[in-house]
Specification:
It is a single chain. The chain is mainly beta. 14% of the residues lie in helices and 42% in strands. Strand 9 and strand 10 form a beta hairpin. It is globular. The N and C termini lie far apart (67 Å).
Length: 182
Amino acid sequence: MKFLMIFAALLFGGLSQAAISKKVTRPAAASVSHQSPGAILRAAGSVHGGEAREIVSLLKVRRLTSKNKKLERIEFALGNAGQQPLEGKPGYFNLELRPGQKQIVIGFAQTLNARFEERDLRKVFAASPYVKSTQMYFEPETQSMNFILNLNKPASVRVIPVMGGKKRTARVVLDLFEGKRR
């Protein structure tokens, strides 16, 4: 009797599986993708990289624009707990390009201090062709320094972590641009 019940369960289970479509669906266009550093985010997604460290500080934010204003480069210079240049990989970071490509959120983990304030950040981005406004805040629970960059227009983002050495500190570089670039 047990044999018949097991056989019937297998038979009907197999038939019910045959009725289920085997069609594979692709994720919606608004789904978030996780990319490796150096990859280009052309739609909503995130990039994380760097190295988990004890304490990191932010030394400087610098902004450069190409002559034709089609590319804007933002550099976050990182230091150690004593605000000295950081050698090796930058500290851990997470960047998210929000849906609609008009807001970037970047967080630096274990970052307890910065050599600049939010008003300094506003001055850096005052003439930016891409960044409309900025916010900077410290998250005490996660001990991270976070930045929100509100953009004038949709942009693609490339994130490049740069190792520090004897002459230059570790940096996280963001390239903002329209359209397709390599």
